[in-house]
Every structure is written in structure tokens, then in C-alpha cells.
């Protein structure tokens, strides 16, 4: 289990991804823009406002494991 997870992580390409980051300097909360459904999201950890930003993240597809095409 551990090995397959590690290899999967290593194989994932990364790209600049739009995110929202928490404006509270003491909080490192952030979320992917893809997963935000309101115009002005608030931090899930401290409820502060969030601002739009970018971050290098592994590319995520919205495909569940049993829908992977071969
Ligand atoms: Zn926060």
C-alpha cells in the first residue's frame, strides 16, 4: 500500500493551480479554486476571508478510481 501510494505521488505532474489562501497570517489554510463554490469563500479553519492565489499542485482529475480509462 505504501509503495503504490508513493509511486503514484511521484508520477503526478504538477501545475500552477488557482487556489484561495487564508488572509490570516497565523493560519496556513487554503483550498483549490475547483473546490470553492461561493464567490467569496471563508477559511475552513479560522473563518477568515480568503484571497485568490496560485500554488504548484499535483494535477487532479475529477475521476474516481473505478472510472479510470486504460
Ligand atoms: Zn484560516
From TrEMBL:
This is Cold-shock protein. InterPro entries: YdjO (IPR025916). Pfam families: YdjO.
